[in-house]
UniProtKB/TrEMBL annotation:
Name this polypeptide is given: Protein kinase domain-containing protein
Ranges for the ANK repeats: 13-45, 46-78, 112-144, 145-177, 178-210, 211-243, 244-276, 277-309, 319-351
Assigned keywords, A-Z: ANK repeat, ATP-binding, Nucleotide-binding, Repeat
MF terms (GO), sorted A to Z: ATP binding; protein kinase activity
InterPro entries: Ankyrin_rpt, Ankyrin_rpt-contain_sf, Kinase-like_dom_sf, Multifunctional_regulatory, Prot_kinase_dom, Protein_kinase_ATP_BS, Ser/Thr_kinase_AS
Organism placement in taxonomy: Eukaryota, Metazoa, Cnidaria, Anthozoa, Hexacorallia
Biased composition (Basic and acidic residues): 907-918
Length: 1165
């Protein structure tokens, strides 16, 4: 950032004589000092060097002398900025050019991850930008916010720099960390010319950021009418809504941008559109006292009496309010007057019986709090509180008011400004003087301080933060001392009890002094709420029970609720409890929590109560179980699962035959059954055989829980807010079977038209265990889908968007599942229509790597359903469309013909063409052609499509012979380096076989631990690398490699282990993911992109971090070098690097040093 550079010169001290001379422009003295041997790399306290100073001042002469004297051009200051940054910050092009010529790093980044090019773009220095690009500056490099130089140019209205960047390859649709593109910047800063340029160069005008905001929102928010008009002219949607359901008109109304609001309405913006809270743009105008926009909205038809959906106003969230309430509550007299003039009903009442003209200061929020409460809880400065509170009193505010939990304004103030304030508390009387002036008695202050102490004592006393704990105790007691009358001696006793950690006795004394045992803190939590968390603080069961017994003797109410409507029973099972257990590593305490729950139930806790989010204890236990199952620590997982089952048994006894509590939905309309259906294990965990917890496999656990959540007489088909039943949310086949057996409707569709299994496929659970729809399925795909059909599950239908299970499998390159589905269709489905739809799904699919699609096509075409009379012309049309998109589209919309086998008789000069031959085309184009040939061979009429696809005339009219219908092994093609060998494998040429894999007989690599071969999985078509080791040579490092790779299967920066095979008498085989080669191969190759070096380094470091932080034991690689870092390319052509060769790696047990004393690894590495 240029401002950060300039700021150094404004604030730097401890400057050397040479730097001062250069900064003062004294060239003569500067030359003399350099000649006398002054260090040319001397630094000041900001890390600034003489060369940086010369660069900033634009002093080329001194800069050259310094460089000749040994000044390092790439030296950095404390902000990691080089001299090149300093020259650009002050627009000194001459010095910047000199530095670039002297090999200054043009891609260096500072602590803000800004590069020199970003600075040049910000400063509108086109020539410097051009120079930097010529010297190799990355035009798409991003800073810490994910913004590229094009953002800087767009933000600062630097059109020419923007044009240069785009010409040099800058991505106009690149998004930053917030999901915003450069067009957002242009729209926000009203830079119409840059915005127009970006749109001309392909910027998406309706792109949305992470909050679903489009550039039009930015223009509307900032009253940038010109840009807004341009965006609308180019097709921007004026009624697009963000994540809160608000349109650009809301932004204009909120910010009083009348001109943009008028433009939006003229272009079709809906004035009565409502957001998620049911509020219209008129609410926004009324809330912000924007009379002009409010008047415009009303003139254009806005309803002045529309009611808010949830009943919340912007300030107090009061229920059932109209725009007039918003105006009145916010003291917006002008808008209120306007609304009344335009017919707003002044006598309408909200849900609490208040009219719009009810004094705003007494409006209450959902917690029953007025503006006086808001002042006490949000204003940090006690003097400012007194000023605001005094104003509220003049307006009718009530000082001794209480909220829904009987908490007073005084209680909140004492908690925030006295007990929890760690400032000097000697002036506590001054802070509380406002309350004394307004009739609050000393005794009330005394009780408030002790009440807060009583409510939070279990939480604070056992807190790990002893300093804050002690401070809070002293503060509360200090307030009590100050306002005590005859109780001073008792306060001394209380202090002594706390010092001796005699908590029950201290609580007894506070109740004797008048504290209500049901008092709460500002969160509404009572001492009982906090006492339920004692086991997670590490408190023993015995001591926790003592506190609970004390509270019981005091008459604590077990069903009292906090501000989130959580009873103590909810509270001890809530996420807050889990966080505490995770932070303190006290999950073993959950066994005591089970005992506490039993204690609460004995004292009358109701399991039918719900939290503010509508959750019952059953919801909370399911969430707890989900959290427990996701943990890799077997001991913790066991204690959570076993404790959860005990809790369910306990609650089931009390529930008895009353099923209402089990039917209750949370605020997202999820029942406990929905949450149960979503239970699953982490990736790579076993579902069968091994017990998950004492006495339970996963299946037994799920079945046991299900019996507590679903009982005869209940529907297994409740629907959530997405219209999904529990069956839609199943993450395991076990859950699916149990629901169907209980009567779940197998083919109910959700709001998107998805059947349960289609929704499962969309969630891509099958990626957890390759080749299986669910991770706990053991049947092969064909048997599995046959079972699905027998259970009445629909595996054929499409949703509202036209997606089917087959289309998802194709897109995800899931051959085994696609093949199994097709086999079942051919064998079991009597409907010709369904089979034809499957064929069309394949022909429409645009995935280009799945060469095995031709095998599926052949199965369908030759099936009994399609073999006789089905017209294949429609399927061929889909293929022709894909050929034009995938092949002709690569020629940048040139009109080209395609020559297939037989040459067209038409002379070449009449039409350009692409020659499609086996040795020149790629598998990506071949699979499309192969399917087309199959359709033509089996009866599709190519001639009928020639008019619609003139460029494909020769292809459509070619004679297809049987020898062109080659049988191949299914193959999902990605590799470029190994393509030739893999193609041979797919044709069963020069192949060997081991288990379920074919591999080429010629190795792709040799090493000290064995040879490596390129292969293909016959079940899924996946490309693999197969490491072949002689049994006689299997050593400790090979066993370690297998062990380590199994442990690291879920790390994206480590080469993925797939399986190993020991069935051969002479060799052991390890199957890994296939990579293109190692870094020693990649660096000298034409595909090497130097600008991606930082990312490659980052990926390697992330991989190492994963290894070093691996649980349960960290792993040291011990042989990291370019040869053991492999690379490949993703679907977008970006290079990916992964760490490999773990033969010398070692698990690091607790207590061992990371310093290696044995000779390991490769010499010189």
């Amino acid at each position: 950032m240029s401002w950060s550079v300039i700021n150094l010169y404004d604030n730097s001290t401890n400057t050397s004589a040479l730097i001062k001379a250069i900064f003062d422009g004294n060239n003569e003295l500067s030359r003399e000092l350099i000649t006398q041997g002054e260090d040319p790399n001397v630094r000041d306290d900001e890390g600034r060097t003489p060369l940086m100073c010369a660069a900033f001042k634009g002093n080329k002469e001194i800069a050259e002398i310094l460089i000749d004297a040994g000044s390092e051009v790439n030296q950095r200051n404390h902000n990691k900025q080089t001299a090149l940054f300093h020259s650009i910050a002050n627009n000194n092009e001459v010095v910047a050019r000199l530095l670039a010529l002297k090999r200054a790093d043009v891609n260096v980044s500072d602590i803000y991850r800004q590069t020199p090019l970003l600075s040049a773009a910000e400063n509108d220095n086109k020539e410097v930008a051009r120079l930097l690009i010529e010297k190799g500056a990355d035009v798409n490099v991003s800073d810490k916010d994910g913004q590229t130089p094009l953002f800087s140019a767009a933000k600062n209205d630097n059109k020419e720099v923007a044009r240069l960047l785009i010409e040099k390859g800058a991505d106009v649709n690149v998004s930053d960390m917030d999901g915003q593109t450069p067009l957002f910047s242009a729209a926000q800063y009203d830079n119409e010319k840059v915005a127009r340029l970006l749109i001309e160069k392909g910027a998406d005008i309706n792109v949305s950021d992470n909050d679903k905001i489009t550039p039009l929102f930015s223009a509307a928010t900032n009253n940038n009418e010109e840009v807004a008009r341009l965006l609308i002219e180019k097709g921007a949607d004026v009624n697009v809504s963000n994540k809160d359901g608000q349109t650009p008109l809301f932004s204009a109304a909120t910010n009083n941008n009348e001109e943009v609001a008028r433009l939006l309405i003229e272009k079709g913006a809906d004035v009565n559109v409502s957001n998620k809270d049911g509020q219209t743009p008129l609410f926004s105008a009324a809330t912000n006292n924007n009379e002009e926009v409010a008047r415009l909205l009303i003139e254009k038809g806005a309803d002045v009496n529309v009611c808010d959906k949830h009943g919340r106003t912007p300030l107090f969230n009061a229920a059932g309010q109209t725009p007039l309430f918003s105006a009145a509550t916010n003291n917006n007299e002008e808008v209120a007057r306007l609304l009344i003039e335009k017919g707003a009903d002044v006598n309408v009442c909200d849900k609490h019986g208040r009219t719009p003209l009810f004094n705003a200061v007494n409006a209450r929020d959902m917690y029953g709090r007025t503006a006086m409460f808001s002042a006490a809880t949000t204003i940090d400065d006690s003097k400012m509180f007194e000023v605001i509170a005094t104003m509220l009193v003049r307006k009718g505010g009530v000082v001794d008011d209480t909220d829904n939990k009987d908490m007073s304004v005084l209680s909140y103030f004492v908690e925030r400004h006295c007990c929890n304030s760690f400032k000097d508390n000697r002036n506590v009387s001054k802070r509380l003087s406002f309350f004394i002036k307004n009739g609050i008695r000393n005794s009330a202050i005394f009780t408030s301080a002790l009440s807060y102490l009583y409510a939070t004592l279990p939480n604070y006393f056992y807190s790990s933060n002893t300093v804050d704990r002690r401070e809070m105790f002293l503060n509360a007691i200090s307030v009590a001392y100050t306002y005590a009358s005859h109780e001073v001696q008792s306060i001394d006793t209380l202090n002594a009890l706390l010092d001796d950690e005699r908590i029950p006795e201290a609580m007894d004394l506070m109740v004797m002094l008048g504290v209500n045992p049901n008092c709460a803190d500002s969160y509404g939590n009572t001492a009982l709420h906090y006492a339920t968390l004692l086991p997670f603080h590490g408190v023993s069961q015995e001591n926790a029970k003592k506190i609970l017994e004390t509270l019981r003797n005091h008459g604590i109410r077990t069903n009292i609720k906090n501000q989130e409507k959580e009873t103590p029973l909810h509270f001890c099972l809530s996420e807050q409890a889990w966080k505490l257990a995770s932070e303190k590593d006290t999950w073993s305490g959950i066994m005591t929590v089970v005992e506490i729950c039993e204690f609460l139930l004995q004292d009358g806790s109701l399991i039918s109560e719900t939290t503010r989010n509508g959750k019952t204890v059953y919801h909370l236990i399911m969430e707890l179980l989900s959290h427990g199952l996701s943990m890799n620590d077997v001991i913790i997982r066991d204690v959570i699962c076993s404790s959860s089952v005990k809790l369910l048994k306990m609650f089931s006894k009390i529930t008895g035959e009353d099923l209402n509590v089990l039917k209750k939905m949370d605020h997202k309309l999820k029942s406990p059954l929905h949450l149960w259906a979503s239970l699953s294990l982490p990736p790579n965990q076993k579902y069968y055989r091994d017990p998950l917890t004492k006495g339970f496999t996963f299946q037994v656990l799920l079945d046991s829980i299900f019996k507590h959540l679903w009982k005869p007489g209940m529907s297994p088909n409740p629907r959530n807010d997405q219209d999904q039943t529990p069956l839609h949310l199943c993450k395991t086949w076990t859950a699916t079977r149990l629901l169907i057996e209980a009567g779940a409707k197998a083919n109910d569709v959700d709001g998107e038209g998805q059947t349960p299994l289609l929704n499962v496929a969309k969630q891509k659970q099958f990626k957890i265990k390759q080749g299986y729809l669910f991770p706990d399925v053991e049947e092969d795909p064909k048997q599995f889908f046959e079972t699905c059909v027998s259970l009445g599950l629909d595996i054929w239908s499409s949703d509202n968007e036209g997606q089917s299970m087959l289309s998802i499998f194709l897109d995800s390159e899931a051959y085994a599942l696609a093949n199994g589905l097709i086999d079942v269709a051919v064998a079991n489905c009597k409907s010709t229509t369904i089979v034809k739809q499957l064929l069309d799904a394949i022909c429409k699919d645009q995935s280009t790597s799945t060469t095995w699609k031709s095998l599926l096509t052949l199965t369908l075409i030759t099936s009994p359903q399609l073999a006789s009379s089905t017209n294949l012309d429609g399927s061929l049309r889909h293929i022709c469309t894909n050929i034009e998109k995938e092949v002709l589209g690569q020629k940048q919309e040139q009109r080209v013909g395609i020559e297939e086998g037989n040459e067209s008789e038409e002379p070449p000069n009449k039409r350009p063409r692409i020659v499609d031959t086996e040795n020149r085309s790629t598998p990506k184009s071949n699979v499309i052609f192969d399917i087309g040939r199959q359709l033509l061979f089996y009866g599709a009429d190519g001639n009928s499509l020639c008019n619609d696809f003139p460029n494909l005339h020769s292809f459509l009219t070619a004679v297809i012979t049987p020898d062109q219908m080659k049988e191949i092994i299914p193959w999902t093609s990605h590799s470029t380096i190994h393509e030739e060998k893999l193609r041979a494998v797919s044709r069963k040429q020069n192949v060997a076989e081991i288990g379920t894999y074919y591999y080429h007989e010629e190795p792709i690599g040799k090493g000290g631990f064995g040879d490596v071969y390129a292969g293909i999985g016959k079940n899924d078509g996946r490309e693999v690398a197969i490491k072949k080791i002689k049994r006689s040579q299997v050593k400790g490092q090979d066993k370690r490699e297998i062990s380590n790779l199994v442990e690291l299967a879920d790390c994206p920066q480590v080469v993925k282990y797939i399986s190993f095979d020991v069935s051969d008498k002479h060799f052991v085989f390890i199957v890994l993911e296939l990579m293109e080669g190692h870094l020693d191969d990649y660096f000298p190759s034409p595909s090497f992109d130097a600008s991606r070096r930082p990312r490659l380094c980052r990926d390697v470091v992330q991989g190492l971090a994963y290894l070093h932080q691996h649980e349960p034991k960290p792993i040291l690689h011990r042989d990291l070098k370019p040869e053991n870092i492999l690379y490949k390319f993703d679907k977008d052509g970006k290079v990916i690097v992964k760490i490999a060769d773990f033969g010398l790696s070692s698990p690091l047990t607790t207590g061992r040093t990371t310093v290696l004393h044995s000779k390991v690894g490769t010499r010189c590495w």
